[in-house]
């Protein structure tokens, strides 16, 4: 569909081609020959269910790649059916598949001066990917070099008009984008409001009603096949007559989630009942103008305008509307804010059209029906051993990567013809970086400090300056983008604005001064070369979340984020896991001049406490260097806003970042964050208040208990002796516990409620699909048993009758106390016996816990247990299985925490000895869990739907460090 545009681009060349310079490689030596390769076994298990979700043997990676990085790349990016020869099994194959495609296209479209330059490009790109210097966004790894469409972009902006054809086309286009592994955003403000009339005389539905269909579609389609859930952004202008309904949409759905949760429905993220709640697959943002924000400051009125003729339909209080926006964000984290006038003031293509929307994470902002492919550099790779930043090499790598990114547009496929045309004509790119937080800490800079902001701003200025310098050089070789002639005055004006911001940057330390000097030269070249050649790309840089690709590069921090916490969960080569103090901490302490024994003492303290407060020998003025996103010394909300404001003037696009606030934050504080973001010149801003969302595990452990002021227990009726049974009803408010279980692979839930004295009084069995015959039978059975228990039928009667009942499903369970079950009823009543019957009674029936069986094995008294309830083979299987479990556990605990063969080399080199790497308990599976352990409360984050691991923030989304799954970002 874009072949004409591509051919035109290839023919428009003016010069001979690029002369490529070697950065890391040596002539005559292939990068693969300079590393040591090793074979690994990649196994992934959902720790909650025990299910093996992925397994591939003999995969090949360099020995310096972490277990986590190799696992994520194998599971996410290797192509081909598992168990076949077509399956990729080496990082070499993956890199070659991508790099050689880029090289072929570069040759075809005239990017290189000679074959030798093409080879240098191939080797340098291979080296940088092999050594985790940078990474392309996920769609490149998914698609490039495969039989699939060569979709390389992660970010898309769509458009929708006020017609049913356009609205239905929006649904279709989003579906194709999600299928390809990407996300999309759009502005619905062209759709007339529910307060306006249709041509037929009826009243319009309004944009919010059409959001329902799109939300349902996004919830159905797995992005990239089964790689991650769909991601989308919905934007509405602040002057749209339906703005209040839009603002409150997701907050009202949160109320629904609470009500359903309290009624006993499974409303956790990924729960079976959450699908009944609407609008959960999109991030919502309000597009505000300077006029509106000024009215907020003054407390003035503001007009909501008709979509048809622009007339004012309703006058509202601007301050009241801003308070509604902040209140909704306080309740559920939506909507975010996008600052329309600031966005369009930095727009390089205003003659073509305004910027009205963004991608799902708000970093890509450009024309409607356009796309952007992303790549991110690992900043720690440019920190020399003497703790100086290699700005010159950084600039060279930026130029190399931007060249590759531009080449990809030549061969890329696009989900729709309008997107393909706009992208080829404007060639928007989004280079960015990851590991800023780790770099700042390693170099002794506080994230929320003048020095930290100056360093970040200098690096970002050099990033964009180097990118546009190469863009201007490419324009002299293969021609400027097609829309440049029409927009050249505006584009050059924006380049001068970037340069002016660079000139106004005030450096603090030698490091940022050196970087700023290189950036200043780069911007001089941008203006000179741009005046001569024009520019190849309408956009060059953004700061993306770098979720999955951040793990691929073994980054400690994602995007612009600070370090998440001081102690991290780390998988080890050969199996097992440890909690490890961030390796940047001892590096930072040495940079600050601390003696080695003090470094070890501080690291030991952090390993125990998870923070630096009162660490032995650490100066209080250095505390801020070790401030993190979460934990005892969490960075203040305005600290995040100030960092965003420091780097925003040096980006073509915007920043994917959420400003985190504590649970105690007020609506007024959120409103102030939004107002300050506007004043500081941000393009977009999102907030998240801890524990504001219900549809995920909460800090109180996700309790479903109702408010403490709920109806008190019903008065106990005095018993009267009668010749018929009397039903003893449970109190209105009673204790209960829910047990999830599997029998023969079939999943179910058992909820048992008790009287105040602990006696069992009711049970509920959830088994089978809601509404099915089986589910109905289980409900009826549960009611019958519950009523009988309340009429006084002893539990042991039911245990005696239902244990050993045989029917399918039967077999292994996930309950260590009941390893085998002959049926669902057999399992349920064995479990109830263990929980609610005394030892003597159930022992007579041969029902014991795993611990009791173990004690009996140790004392040789296992034979005293009645064996007529189980076959000898079944008992032997149970004994063997239990013994293996104990053995495995004992073996793990017997391994020294500092054993060299199990620790990664970088952990051993941290200089902190055993204090930096310690065993973790079986309940900890991620850094979020570790943080929860140190804070003494459950971490507020969703569970990964793939592996069950608790995710952690990445930009505006979440990423799983167990398997690399994201909540929608690249």
Features:
Anaerobic Ribonucleotide-triphosphate Reductase Large Chain; 3 domains; ten-stranded mixed β-sheet; EC 1.17.4.1; Vitamin B12-dependent ribonucleotide reductase; RNR_lg_C; DNA synthesis
Describe it for me?
Residues 730-835 form the TSCPD domain. Residues 153-688 form the Ribonucleotide reductase large subunit C-terminal domain. Its cofactor is adenosylcob(III)alamin. Catalyzes the reduction of ribonucleotides to deoxyribonucleotides. May function to provide a pool of deoxyribonucleotide precursors for DNA repair during oxygen limitation and/or for immediate growth after restoration of oxygen. By secondary structure, this protein is of the alpha/beta class. The chain folds into 3 domains: 3-150 and 366-547, no CATH class; 151-365 and 654-702, Anaerobic Ribonucleotide-triphosphate Reductase Large Chain; 736-869, no CATH class. 41% of the residues lie in helices and 15% in strands. Strands 3, 4, 5, 8, 9, 12, 13, 14, 17 and 18 form a 10-stranded mixed β-sheet that branches. The chain has a 3-stranded antiparallel β-sheet with strand order 15-16-24. Strands 19-20-21 form a 3-stranded antiparallel β-sheet. Helix 24 packs antiparallel against helix 25 (824-836). The longest helix is centred in the middle third of the chain and has 29 residues, at 450-478. The model is unreliable at 1-13, 223-228, 696-722 and 860-915 (pLDDT under 50).
